[in-house]
Write a structure and sequence with these properties.
- The protein has helices spanning 22-26, 33-39, 45-55, 76-92, 116-128, 148-151, 166-181, 210-221, 255-271, 273-277, 285-296, 317-324, 338-347, 423-426, 447-453, and strands at residues 2-9, 30-31, 59-67, 99-103, 134-138, 154-157, 187-192, 226-232, 246-252, 282-283, 303-307, 330-336, 352-357, 369-384, 394-405, 408-413, 437-440, 456-460.
- By secondary structure, the chain is an alpha/beta fold.
- Strands 10-18-11-17-12-16-15-14-13 form a 9-stranded mixed β-sheet. The protein has a 6-stranded mixed β-sheet with strand order 2-3-1-4-5-6, sandwiched between helices. Strands 7-9-8 form a 3-stranded antiparallel β-sheet, sandwiched between helices.
- The longest helix is centred in the N-terminal third of the chain and has 17 residues, at 76-92.
- The radius of gyration is 22 Å and the shape is globular.
Length: 488
C-alpha cells in the first residue's frame, strides 16, 4: 500500500493590508523526504499521517508541507508553487498510489480564491482521478464550503482549541483512510452551517459554550456507525462567501445518521450563539491591566493578560498601558520588531538603549512606543519546541533581544509568533514563576499551558487587528444571514 501526503496551511486575515508571499512559507517549508524527517513525531496533521502509516507498514510518498502562519491574503504565487508541486509529483506516481492525505487549514484565502482548500483538493483530484480516496485534515478554525465534500472523500477537523490534537487529527484521517482501503468502511459525509461567525477568543474548547458543543460531539462519536465528527468554529476575519461555523460528520455508509448528527450540533451552536459570538468578561485595556496589577499583589502564580486581538504580534496597546500604570515584574514575550532587535544587538548586552518599538504595519496597531531600558540578552531565537502544541517542532524567532524596560521583561523578535507555551521564557533562562504578570497575544492556544501556570486569565479586547467586535469591519462577500455580522 502506498499513500501520498502533502500539507499547505494558512489562516488568512483578509482585512490585513498587503499579501503573504512565497518567502514567508519557504522559510520553514519542507519538500520530499524532508517532510517525513522533520514532521515525524510532531503535533501536526502530517505528523499524524506519518505516525499511523509507518506503524501499519504503509509506504509514504511525501511531497511538501508548508505554513505561512496567520497573516495577510496569500499571493497567487504561493498557491501556484505548492499546488503545482503536488499535481506534478502526484501525477508521476498516480498509478502506484492507493490514496492521498492532505494537511490543510480551511481558512486560507489567496488573491484569486476565497475557498482555497476546495480548489487544492479539486486540483489534486484532477491528476489522480475520481476513484482515488483523498482525505483531508483541517484546522478547527476553517471556513468550509460544502463543495469541499464533493472533492474530498472525507474531512477531519481538530477537536480542540488549543490545538493540542493536530497530530491526533492526522491520525484520525489516516486510520479512516486505511479502513476505507481495506474495505472495512464506506465513508459518507454531511455538513451543516448554523450561520454563526465566532471570534477565535470564544472558541476555546476548555470553556463553555464551545466546551459543551465538543462534549455533545463526543457523545455522537460513541454511536455505532459513526466514523468521525468535527466542529469547525470558523475564522471570523476572512471576508469570504463560506464564512462561519460548520459541522461535518463522517459515517459508515449511513447518510441519514450523518445528517442527524450535523443538524443536532448546528442547532446546539445556534442555541449558544450569544456566548459564541459576544462572550463575557472582556475588559478594556486600561481596566484589564489595572485589574492584573491589583490581583498580582496577592496571587501565588502569575496573572495572565490575554491580548487576543493582536495578529501582528506588535500592537502596543497593552505595552503602553503596562508602562503607564508602572506594572512591576511583568513579562511580554515574543514582541515582533526586527529594527529594535538590531538596535539592541548594535548596543550590546548590558547597555541601555532608547528606541521606538512596535506598530510595524501601521494597521490598527496602536502606534510606536518609545522605551528606554537595559539590554539583557541578544542572540538567535532558535530551539526545539517542548510544549504540547509545538513539541518536536523547530522554532525560529530569528534574531532576538531581551530588554528590561522599567518593570517589564520585554522579548523582541524578528519573526512573529504568539506565546502558547513556556518555551519563549524557559529557553531564555527564566521561568514563568519569575513574573507576576505575563502577557500573551495568543487566542486560545496558550490555555493548554497557562490555565495551569497562571492564577487567573484576564482578557482585554484591545482595538487591534482582530477584535471580538466584528462591527468595525466592512464585510462584502459574506452571506446576508450570518450572525452577528451586518453587511454594510
Amino acid at each position: 500500500m502506498k499513500i501520498g501526503i502533502a500539507g499547505l496551511e494558512h489562516e488568512t486575515v483578509t482585512f490585513w493590508p498587503g499579501t503573504t508571499d512565497l518567502e514567508d512559507f519557504e522559510r520553514d517549508g519542507l519538500h520530499g523526504a524532508g517532510v517525513i524527517e522533520r514532521r515525524r513525531g510532531t503535533n501536526t496533521s502530517v505528523g499524524g499521517f506519518i505516525d499511523i502509516c509507518e506503524k501499519e507498514g504503509v509506504e509514504l510518498f511525501p511531497v511538501c508541507d508548508a505554513s505561512g502562519g496567520a497573516t495577510a491574503t496569500v499571493s497567487d504565487r504561493v498557491y501556484d508553487f505548492y499546488v503545482d508541486e503536488m499535481k506534478r509529483e502526484f501525477a508521476k506516481v498516480a498509478s502506484e498510489l492507493d490514496g492521498i492525505l492532505l494537511g490543510l487549514h480551511g481558512a486560507m484565502v489567496t488573491e484569486s480564491l476565497q475557498d482555497t482548500e476546495t480548489h487544492i483538493v479539486r486540483d489534486v483530484r484532477g491528476v489522480v482521478g475520481r476513484k482515488m480516496p483523498i482525505m483531508v485534515a483541517l484546522d478547527l478554525h476553517g471556513n468550509l464550503d460544502p463543495a469541499i465534500l464533493k472533492e474530498a472523500t472525507a474531512v477531519f477537523g481538530f477537536q480542540s482549541s488549543p490545538h493540542v490534537d493536530a497530530g491526533e487529527t492526522g491520525r484520525r484521517a489516516a486510520r479512516a483512510m486505511l479502513a476505507t482501503l481495506r474495505g472495512e468502511i464506506k465513508p459518507v459525509t454531511a455538513i451543516a452551517k448554523p450561520g454563526l461567525v465566532v471570534p477565535s477568543v470564544f472558541s476555546a474548547t476548555s470553556t463553555s459554550p464551545a466546551k459543551d458543543i465538543i462534549s455533545r460531539l463526543r457523545e455522537w462519536e460513541q454511536r455505532s456507525g459513526v466514523v468521525d465528527v468535527s466542529v469547525f468554529f470558523g475564522f471570523a476575519w476572512s471576508d469570504v462567501h463560506q464564512l462561519g461555523m460548520s459541522v461535518v460528520a463522517v459515517t459508515d455508509d449511513d447518510p441519514e445518521l450523518a445528517q442527524e448528527i450535523v443538524t443536532d450540533l448546528a442547532q446546539l451552536a445556534w442555541k449558544n450563539r450569544e456566548g459564541l459570538t459576544r462572550g463575557k468578561h472582556l475588559c478594556s485595556v486600561r481596566d484589564g491591566v489595572a485589574l492584573a496589577i491589583k490581583k498580582a499583589e496577592h496571587a501565588s502564580k502569575p496573572i495572565i493578560i490575554l491580548d487576543h486581538a493582536d495578529r501582528t504580534n506588535d500592537t502596543t496597546f497593552v505595552l503602553r498601558e503596562l508602562l503607564e500604570q508602572k506594572a512591576q515584574s511583568a513579562a511580554l514575550p515574543l514582541f515582533k520588531d526586527p529594527k529594535a532587535v538590531k538596535a539592541c544587538g548594535e548596543a550590546g548586552v548590558g547597555e541601555t538603549v532608547e528606541i521606538s518599538i512596535g506598530a510595524g504595519t501601521g494597521w490598527r496597531d496602536g502606534g510606536p512606543v518609545k522605551v528606554k531600558g537595559k539590554v539583557l540578552w541578544v542572540g538567535e531565537g532558535k530551539y526545539i519546541g517542548t510544549g504540547p502544541m509545538r513539541r518536536g517542532l523547530h522554532a525560529d524567532h530569528g534574531p532576538t533581544a531581551i530588554m528590561k524596560v522599567d518593570g517589564v521583561w520585554l522579548q523582541l523578535t524578528t519573526f512573529g509568533s504568539s506565546l502558547i507555551d513556556e518555551d519563549p521564557i524557559i529557553q531564555f533562562g527564566c521561568k514563568p514563576s519569575d513574573f507576576d504578570i505575563i502577557v500573551t497575544k495568543s487566542k486560545t492556544h496558550f490555555r493548554a499551558v497557562y490555565e495551569e501556570v497562571g492564577e487567573e486569565i484576564i482578557i482585554v479586547d484591545a482595538p487591534g487587528q482582530c477584535p471580538a467586535d466584528l462591527s468595525v469591519f466592512q464585510y462584502k462577500n459574506v452571506p446576508s444571514d450570518v450572525y452577528p455580522i451586518t453587511k454594510k
